[in-house]
Amino acid sequence: MKTSVLEVEDLYVHYFTDTGVVRAVDGASLEVDRGELVALVGESGSGKTTLAYAIMRLVPPPGRIVKGRIILGGIEVLELPEEDIRKLRWKKVSMIFQGAMNSLNPVMRVGDQIVEVLLYHEAIDDIEEGRKRARELFRLVGLDPERIDSYPHELSGGQKQRVVIAMALALNPDLVIADEPTTGLDVTTQAKIMDTIREIQREIGISVLLITHDLPLVAEVADRVYVMYAGKIVETSDVEKIFYKPRHPYTRGLIGAVPSHIGPKKKLVALPGEPPDLRYPPPGCRFHPRCSLAMPICREKEPPLSSRDPRDYVSCWLYRPREAGEND
Ligand SMILES: Nc1ncnc2c1ncn2[C@@H]1O[C@H](COP(=O)(O)OP(=O)(O)OP(=O)(O)O)[C@@H](O)[C@H]1O
Ligand code: SF4
Ligand SMILES: [Mg+2]
């Protein structure tokens, strides 16, 4: 029996700007199972946040979901009227937005901001019940429950981020999308926040789609990994394989070298060159201008997926799928 909480199939999300069409997500597919922590990694501008916005049906103009399918707990998200989508948000899927801790309402007590979400979704009968739930959520994310009466400026960055996580959990969603949830925090706080997310994820069995640049973090916490480059998923597999046996030259570049053990504490090795302008993506393999292994075909034809397994493939001409009857 399939246990996916999220399936994204061949999704295209473009920004129709005055200077051209930005192909931010250009044929991306991914799946998240119940109770899994799946990481989506890739350099800045590869389309990660745009993909997350599409799952929430929150792509800002001039962006538009051009085609594809998004299935959330069996529901076809792209076919729902806006009103029904609003009901799904927070309840089925919630998102910890990139930089969210800086967008808490500065003139509202943090607990009241959670009560507001609960009231909007008619999840509570009165304010007192909401405050009780907010205290429970604060305990869950490692905050002193009395902190519900604090204003954002009275909290540290790490505490504010915990408030944002509490808010994302308020309506017991099946899936939480966490977009760079620890960026901007000091290293120790980052580790503590991530431990909290992992603990909660195991304790209450939710699924998490973690978007991050932080590969050592991914090695520590993720079950599976999708590597995104210039709007496309170029490689996916379980976390061990990504770190022990990275196949795509981009993945190899991202993790620097094959580490001798899982959980490398090494710094990200900078890849040569820049990601392409997604208004004019290069033909063939989008990575070819930066790839030291590029062959003539790479400049002309888009590489096929190496396998039909949606959870274990690479898209690179070095790993072309085996033809019928072909031997090693
Ligand atoms: N509102 C917008 N209008 C036009 N282009 C946009 C808009 N938002 C994002 N883009 C473009 O879409 C592409 C993907 O951006 P996106 O923010 O999804 O990347 P990302 O992988 O989340 O990057 P980062 O790691 O920096 O957060 C980029 O080329 C970006 O410039
Ligand atoms: S398809 Fe070619 S250019 Fe692209 S990553 Fe593979 S070898 Fe490099
Ligand atoms: Mg982003």
What would you note in describing this structure?
By secondary structure, this protein is an alpha/beta fold. The chain folds into two domains: 4-80 and 175-186 and 207-319, P-loop containing nucleotide triphosphate hydrolases (Rossmann fold); 93-172. It has helices spanning 48-55, 82-88, 110-120, 127-140, 157-169, 187-204, 215-221, 239-244, 249-255, 296-300, and strands at residues 4-17, 20-33, 37-41, 63-72, 75-76, 93-96, 175-179, 207-212, 224-229, 232-238, 313-314. A hairpin with a 2-residue loop joins β4 and β5. The longest helix has 18 residues, at 187-204. Residues 257-268 have low confidence and may be disordered.
Strands, helices and their partners?
Blueprint: E1 4-17, E2 20-33, E3 37-41, H1 48-55, E4 63-72, E5 75-76, H2 82-88, E6 93-96, H3 110-120, H4 127-140, H5 157-169, E7 175-179, H6 187-204, E8 207-212, H7 215-221, E9 224-229, E10 232-238, H8 239-244, H9 249-255, H10 296-300, E11 313-314
Parallel strand pairs: 3-8, 3-9, 6-7, 7-8
Antiparallel strand pairs: 1-2, 1-4, 4-5, 9-10, 10-11
Bound molecules: adenosine-5'-triphosphate, iron/sulfur cluster and magnesium ion.
Defining key terms:
binds magnesium ion; 2 domains; 4-stranded antiparallel sheet; 7-stranded mixed sheet; about 25% strand; binds adenosine-5'-triphosphate; Rossmann fold; about 325 residues; alpha/beta; globular; binds iron/sulfur cluster
CATH superfamily of the largest domain: P-loop containing nucleotide triphosphate hydrolases
What is the overall number of helices? 10
Question: What is the CATH topology assignment of the largest domain?
Answer: Rossmann fold
Architecture per CATH nomenclature, i.e. the level-2 architecture of the largest domain: 3-Layer(aba) Sandwich
How much helix is in the residues? Answer: 25-40%
Quaternary organisation: single chain
What share of the residues does DSSP label as strand, in percent? Answer: 15-25%
* Counted beta strands: 11
Q: Using the coordinates above, name the CATH class of the largest domain.
A: Alpha Beta
Hetero groups: adenosine-5'-triphosphate, iron/sulfur cluster, magnesium ion
